[in-house]
Amino acid sequence: MKEHGSERAEVAEWMCPEHDEKLKLFCVTDQQLACIICRDGERHEGHKFKPIREAAASLRKEMEKGVENLPTDIRAIERHANLQREEITKTKEKSHQLMTTISREFEEMHQFLRKREDEIKKELEHKEEDAVEKMSKNLKAIETTLSESNELEGKVTVTLNVTDPERFLKIWMEGNSTTPEDLFRPRADDLMVVNTSLCLGPYESHLQFFVWKEMRQVIQPREEVLSLKSNSVNITVSDDGRSLLCTTNQKTSQGPLFGVMPSLAPSFGQPLAPSGGLFGKSFSSASSFNQPVVDMFGNRIQTGVQVSPAFVAGKSAVQSTDHVFSVNEFISGQHYWEIEVWQRNYWELGVKDNLLKYDGQKYTACSQNINTELEFGGKPRKIGVYLNCSSMKLSFYDADNMSHIHTMSSDQASVPVSAHFNVTADPNRLTVCWY
């Protein structure tokens, strides 16, 4: 009975449970056994079938071929696993190093702050000691005078109680050689209260700000002090290489060409200097000076800046950019610099082929001819640029609050690299921040 039951089970295993037909086919599409009725059914419509023996032989051949390559693949996977373990270890070690560095850097600042706190407190203590010493000395003199006046009042009261004239005068003359006018002269008028008010100057009202300014002098590393250069005749660069103006590079698309005088006063509203250049410095430029300028009303104006065609009221204009570079070049390490963009309506800054662009409405990351529009919606007064030469990553920040704008990386960038700017004609200056 057991043998009969086993045979029945084996036969049932090779029977189609749905059609009660023997499973003679293999559906290559579904990778499952099927009977003849299954093959013609809707569920397997359009599927590829093979006889069981042929399917088994084909599968065996593929498995034998695949198992030959499996050890190589396993070793490759093991290498990936080992590399990933190494990266995990490196990341943990790097994190530990950074933790140590962070603790050390903050401890240096803490030490500076604690030292300055002790110094300012000691200065306050010395001021307190000097003030208290002066006031205590004066208080002692006042108390002495008060004691003498109280003693005099007691003696005079006793003397006034004597009714005998001779005895009264005798008591007055004993130990007294002054007149009543001198003796009873008000002594309070000779005294004054010493008021030595403590004052720490700016440390009393602006302590955090002044200490912060002191701390900036000892912080290392500092921001990069960039010097700018340009070969464009449209770019005016200050003698110290810190500031620039793009005086003209726009063309009207229709009608006659007119010039408008760009406002070259600094962003704080100072008037244009008649001599000595802009921002209190002389400027070097390939531009021709003292050329006539026509304003938007057609009036002829004399100014000290070369002017080319620019925006005309009611006309569209096509902008072109001029390039500016930093004299500084970076080969290795990590570097940070800040640029004052103020109210400029167009700028591109970063390094060559990796720039953050602002066109007056939106920000765009420009990297290797690929432009990515960003969601950042603020308008920072200063842009911070952070360059990591080892990883070739470039990050941009709102330098006023250090909020992150965007980070881009480039495997194709080569060293040395320098700061790079593309600018258009704009009355507002672009300046490197020097602290």
Automatic annotation (TrEMBL):
<keyword id="KW-0862">Zinc</keyword>
<feature type="domain" description="B box-type">
    <location>
        <begin position="15"/>
        <end position="52"/>
    </location>
</feature>
<dbReference type="InterPro" id="IPR050143">
    <property type="entry name" value="TRIM/RBCC"/>
</dbReference>
<dbReference type="Pfam" id="PF00643">
    <property type="entry name" value="zf-B_box"/>
</dbReference>
<dbReference type="InterPro" id="IPR000315">
    <property type="entry name" value="Znf_B-box"/>
</dbReference>
<dbReference type="InterPro" id="IPR043136">
    <property type="entry name" value="B30.2/SPRY_sf"/>
</dbReference>
<keyword id="KW-0863">Zinc-finger</keyword>
<protein>
    <submittedName>
        <fullName>Nuclear factor 7, ovary-like</fullName>
    </submittedName>
</protein>
<dbReference type="InterPro" id="IPR013320">
    <property type="entry name" value="ConA-like_dom_sf"/>
</dbReference>
<dbReference type="GO" id="GO:0008270">
    <property type="term" value="F:zinc ion binding"/>
</dbReference>
<keyword id="KW-0479">Metal-binding</keyword>
<dbReference type="InterPro" id="IPR003879">
    <property type="entry name" value="Butyrophylin_SPRY"/>
</dbReference>
<feature type="coiled-coil region">
    <location>
        <begin position="74"/>
        <end position="152"/>
    </location>
</feature>
<keyword id="KW-0175">Coiled coil</keyword>
